[in-house]
């Protein structure tokens, strides 16, 4: 009897699809995990006809992938993970240890108020997990452990009431309010006591310069209140009191900003119609017409330190010490005395209305030493999580707001379920890599919390939510939840995955109705990877059908030559390529997610088009999105890749810590994930990509070492090791490999006719030492923009070549002059000595797109073939063109490859006759073209 799979084995098997399962309520789930998981001993969905190998099963050899990965591994080793954890710890009111949040999208001062913070931490965890699985370097496991442990502490803190964070104060200890904790001190309603005269005295140490943060605010609403702001609109302290809203404020304004990270003493006195504001013992403002006092305000319901009655105002960030309320106006001398000693040690004594020293080092309450027993309580502005599984780097408010939102506003709600997915996936990848049960428990708790929220909502609400641009974006969360369900078998988890159905999109794509025009690309691509997994879990065919049809709507109809898609993050009309080229084309996340979808579809149907696309996008956009230089602070990955003439790639996009930098970290640590797949029954091994690597196929006891310099080398050698094993080796024949693809085994040619865009099968019993040599001669070819045939992009084999030029207009180039009988345009290019895959054409250097440089490049050029030329011979005839831009030479060479010169001349004669008949070419010029073709000599 086969030994049952462990939870971790099952989880790892599911993660092979770039998915991450989870577990919850550990003891209960452990008992049901194995029998509830996928049926086969392999632990993979029964609907998969091929399966991937784990990252630990495939090691990268020397080459461009290993070089790019090394740069990212160095970044993963060196970046301070406490910076990533800062926003989580702050949200839970925990000490941040002086760590500075990364900024950009991952900080409170970043785009849209940092409403996406937490997402980058999830990406980073996934990167670490992939790095550890690939290299087994302990440093990555240690960093995962640090992050998971910290996140466990964060969840524990969020589950309980806020607790004081005690720090060194001016005289003793103080209570710190970490920015991002949304915590404040709530005083009883009797704190002001309706006194007709008052002094409010406090020591503060602000840590941020946000305007209108309140030191204190006593009020009912935005009509009746009394407050002291650390900074007004001009950056100086302001005190105000009103019974008629902002327009009726009687105020006092300071003269200089309070210094950050330093203790300052603030005091306000009101008596006899005069109000005075003191800063550090000096009277900085006096208002002799201040008629309002606490007595005029009456009993107030909101009596807060650090929070404003205006909900849009930020919460105070910094520390409090010695807050005293006196029922009289202290003298200037008494205020001065408080600069050097506590009130208890001064002649004033403690405040007789309220007095808080903030000496507490634990708990969530602060004792009142006035004798009135007005105990204050530390609270969060947003209350508490709705479920103990909640984990995030910000309050639950974005999730709540989304449920009633009808239009996008990312300054209020920015894709909270998208961020939840990144955290969830990072935790599950961490578990897969290190077997840390804490990560599994955290991830499962998140799913239980999401189910508790979403299962209560009407179907119409869910459909509205998921249809909102940006705010309703949820990334690949369905994929992760499905993988969780495949492990736990919990009905709630499968139910949760189905709650993310966007029915109008699923139904349209299932019916093969193209509705992509105007949609945000990266909001929708990962949805379909999740729906494929939902098909695996439910058997519902519409999920898989919709995903297949969706893929076909993108490739090739909205795909650029490098494999990327989208312009300005959105899709435009079908088959519009030239018309969408801009500086903001090809968002890098889109390529990442199209790769995931392509491989997931391949698990169900081994259509070579999916792996053809995978090679295109991986070897061009994904490789080229990573800059070829080290950096400890940044991953150096593009956001957009502009395809306009002379574009220079930006590897430090926007404000940093963007989605594309996150997926870029992941891509660079899993380059080997799709090199090899196995038939689910073990009968075949698919070689999808030609890449230096070693596969350990434990099930067969076989190793396969692929030795190649591809794509600098036009071929690859596979050497077998280990035990004897019988299976079929399926070698991908790229769609561009139209001539010369050849396979030998131990030096002997394998019979058969390889078909471009297929797999070439070699069946035998493999033995240690067997050697397979694959030859893949490269051709130079162009691909034309679907909406403008004269705008083209150049390929040499799988490699997209870009011109390096600072010109801002499309370069013009001709390529037919020396074309070979095969249609190969290579003879038109001149190799650059010592620089593989670099060429010159008309004096301009062309280089692989994959090189991560800051050179200005042209990914598209304007084809210019003014004369009919064959084999270097100029006929003297102008090359005519049709209305759509297709030229005579285009139609001639569309017939390539030609078996011999006679076949080419026959094609020229046939095309000339058609053009003469159509009135597009004179008979005399046509005869010259045919004569020139016949007189020329050609390369094969």
Blueprint (SSEs and pairs):
Layout: H1 7-15, H2 26-36, E1 50-52, E2 58-60, H3 64-78, H4 81-91, H5 119-135, H6 138-159, E3 166-168, E4 173-177, E5 183-186, E6 198-206, E7 214-219, E8 225-229, E9 238-242, E10 250-253, E11 264-271, E12 274-279, E13 282-287, H7 294-297, E14 302-305, E15 318-326, H8 332-337, E16 354-356, E17 365-366, E18 376-380, H9 397-402, H10 416-434, H11 437-454, H12 459-466, H13 477-488, H14 491-498, H15 503-510, H16 521-538, H17 541-554, H18 588-602, H19 608-624, H20 659-667, E19 676-679, E20 684-687, E21 693-697, E22 702-707, E23 715-722, E24 725-733, E25 742-745, E26 748-749, E27 758-766, E28 771-775, E29 780-785, E30 788-796, E31 799-804, E32 812-813, E33 830-831, E34 839-841, E35 844-848, E36 857-858, E37 861-863, E38 867-870, E39 873-878, H21 888-893, H22 901-917, H23 923-935
Parallel strand pairs: 20-24, 32-37
Antiparallel strand pairs: 1-19, 2-21, 3-4, 4-15, 5-14, 5-18, 6-11, 6-15, 7-8, 7-14, 8-9, 9-10, 11-12, 12-13, 15-16, 17-18, 19-20, 21-22, 22-23, 23-28, 24-27, 25-26, 25-28, 29-30, 30-31, 30-37, 31-35, 31-36, 33-34, 34-35, 38-39
Helix pairs in contact: 1-10, 1-13, 2-13, 4-6, 5-6, 5-10, 5-20, 6-10, 10-11, 11-14, 13-14, 13-16, 15-17, 16-17, 16-18, 17-18, 18-19, 22-23
């Amino acid at each position: 009897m086969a030994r049952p799979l462990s939870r971790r084995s099952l989880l790892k098997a599911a993660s092979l699809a770039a998915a991450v399962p989870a577990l919850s309520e550990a003891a209960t789930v452990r008992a049901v995990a194995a029998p509830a998981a996928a049926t086969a001993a392999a632990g993979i969905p029964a609907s998969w006809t091929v399966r991937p190998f784990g990252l630990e099963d495939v090691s990268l050899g020397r080459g461009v992938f290993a070089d790019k990965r090394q740069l990212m591994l160095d970044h993963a080793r060196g970046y301070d993970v406490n910076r990533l954890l800062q926003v989580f710890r702050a949200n839970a009111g925990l000490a941040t240890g002086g760590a500075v949040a990364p900024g950009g999208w991952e900080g409170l001062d970043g785009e849209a108020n940092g409403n996406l913070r937490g997402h980058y931490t999830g990406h980073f965890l996934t990167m670490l997990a992939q790095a550890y699985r690939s290299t087994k370097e302990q440093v990555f496991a240690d960093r995962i452990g640090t992050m998971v442990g910290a996140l466990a502490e964060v969840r524990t803190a969020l589950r309980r009431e806020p607790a004081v964070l005690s720090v060194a104060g001016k005289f003793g200890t103080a209570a710190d309010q970490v920015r991002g904790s949304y915590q404040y001190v709530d005083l009883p309603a009797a704190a002001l006591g309706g006194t007709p005269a008052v002094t409010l005295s406090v020591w503060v140490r602000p840590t941020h310069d946000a305007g209108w943060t309140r030191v204190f605010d006593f009020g009912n609403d935005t009509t009746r209140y009394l407050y002291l702001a650390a900074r007004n609109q001009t950056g100086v302290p302001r005190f105000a009191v009103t019974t008629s809203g902002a327009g009726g404020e009687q105020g006092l304004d300071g003269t200089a900003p309070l210094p950050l990270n330093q203790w300052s003493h603030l005091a306000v006195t009101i008596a006899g119609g005069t109000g005075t504001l003191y800063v550090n013992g000096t009277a900085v403002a006096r208002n002799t017409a201040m008629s309002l006092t606490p007595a005029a305000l009456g009993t107030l319901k909101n009596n807060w330190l650090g929070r404003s009655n205006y909900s849009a105002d930020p919460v105070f960030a910094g520390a409090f010490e010695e807050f005293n309320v006196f029922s009289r106006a202290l003298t200037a001398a008494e205020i001065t005395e408080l600069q050097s000693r506590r009130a208890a040690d001064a002649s004033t004594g403690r405040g007789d209305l309220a007095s808080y020293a903030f000496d507490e080092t634990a708990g969530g309450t602060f004792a009142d030493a006035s004798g009135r027993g007005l105990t204050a309580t530390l609270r969060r502005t947003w209350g508490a999580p709705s479920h103990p599984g909640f984990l995030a780097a910000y309050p639950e408010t974005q999730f709540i707001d989304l449920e009633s939102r009808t239009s996008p506003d990312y300054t209020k709600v920015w894709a909270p379920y998208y961020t939840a997915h990144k955290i969830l996936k990072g935790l599950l990848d961490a578990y897969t890599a290190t077997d840390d049960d804490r990560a599994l428990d955290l991830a499962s708790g998140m799913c239980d919390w999401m189910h508790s929220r979403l299962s209560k909502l009407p179907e119409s609400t869910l459909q509205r939510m998921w249809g909102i641009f940006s705010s309703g974006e949820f990334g690949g969360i369905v994929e992760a939840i499905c993988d969780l369900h495949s492990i736990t078998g919990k009905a709630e988890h499968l139910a949760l995955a189905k709650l993310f159905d966007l029915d109008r999109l699923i139904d349209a794509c299932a019916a093969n109705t193209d509705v992509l025009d105007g949609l945000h690309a990266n909001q929708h691509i990962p949805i379909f990877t999740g729906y494929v997994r939902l098909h695996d879990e439910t058997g519902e065919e519409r999920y898989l059908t919709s995903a297949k049809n969706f893929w076909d709507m993108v490739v090739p109809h909205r795909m650029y030559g490098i494999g990327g898609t989208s312009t300005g993050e959105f899709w435009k009309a079908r088959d519009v390529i030239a018309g969408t080229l801009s500086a903001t084309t090809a968002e890098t996340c889109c390529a990442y997610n199209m790769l995931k979808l392509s491989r997931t579809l391949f698990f169900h149907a081994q259509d070579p088009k999916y792996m053809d696309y995978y090679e295109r996008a991986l070897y061009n956009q994904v490789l080229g999105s990573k800059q070829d230089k080290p950096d400890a602070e940044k991953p150096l990955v593009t956001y957009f890749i502009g395809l306009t003439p002379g574009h220079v790639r930006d590897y430090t996009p926007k404000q940093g810590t963007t989605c594309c930098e996150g997926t870029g970290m992941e891509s660079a640590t899993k380059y080997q994930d799709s090199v090899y797949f196995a038939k689910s029954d073990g009968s075949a091994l698919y070689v999808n990509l030609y890449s230096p690597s070693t596969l350990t196929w434990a099930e067969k006891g076989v190793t396969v070492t692929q030795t190649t310099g591809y794509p600098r080398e036009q071929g690859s050698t596979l050497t077998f090791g280990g035990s004897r094993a019988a299976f079929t080796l399926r070698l991908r024949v790229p769609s561009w490999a139209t001539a010369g693809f050849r396979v030998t085994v131990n030096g002997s040619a394998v019979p058969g006719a390889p078909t471009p865009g297929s797999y070439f099968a070699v069946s035998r019993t493999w033995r240690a030492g067997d050697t397979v040599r694959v030859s893949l001669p490269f051709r130079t070819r162009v691909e034309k923009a679907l909406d403008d045939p004269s705008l083209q992009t150049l390929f040499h084999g799988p490699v997209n070549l870009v011109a390096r030029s600072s010109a801002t207009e499309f370069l013009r180039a001709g390529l037919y002059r020396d074309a070979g009988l095969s249609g190969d345009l290579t003879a038109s290019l001149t190799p650059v000595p010592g620089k593989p895959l670099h060429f010159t054409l008309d004096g301009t250097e062309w280089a692989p797109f994959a090189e991560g440089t800051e050179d200005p490049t042209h990914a598209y050029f304007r084809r210019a073939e003014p004369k009919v030329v064959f084999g270097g011979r100029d006929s003297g005839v102008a090359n005519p063109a049709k209305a759509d831009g297709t030229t005579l030479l285009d139609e001639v060479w569309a017939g390539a490859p030609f078996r011999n010169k006679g076949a080419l001349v026959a094609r020229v004669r046939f095309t000339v006759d058609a053009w003469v008949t159509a009135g597009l070419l004179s008979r005399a010029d046509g005869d010259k073209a045919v004569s020139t073709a016949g007189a020329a000599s050609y390369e094969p």
